[in-house]
Amino acid sequence: RMEGYGYYALPTGAEYRGPLWDGMFHGQGELLLPTGGSYRALWERGVATQGKYAFADGLEYDEEKWRYCDGYDRRFYTEICSGFKPPGIPQLTNLDPPKIIPEDCYDCGDGFYDPKTRIVVDYKRKFLRNADDEEHEWILRTCRKAWAITTEQKPKP
Length: 157
Description:
The protein is mainly beta and 157 residues long.
């Protein structure tokens, strides 16, 4: 069994860094996710008893005082930190500039979706999953799609 401080790579691409006891996460450790987020927690025999999740951009999730992207304030986190762009220049995602979506694909939040193959790949083009019918319909209905013709908003001089 694994014991002591170590690193453990999970098949999902996540990685645990911290103390292990009898092959389980045990103590103050961190789970690094392939999306760039992380979960720091106090683990007891493989179960997180207290913890904090941080998104890839540094925003920490707070269940009690969550003020990001709620029904009253729809700004992206980068807009909260840096302010709005000038009128006429849209910010479509939290990333600025946003990821360039491959032709005929959709940006579904954790990667790109190709509706022809029904496969979701991460932003480095590594396979994540096959989309079922429900996810397929949701992505087509709600996610940002690549355009055949790009238009750029350039501020007037």
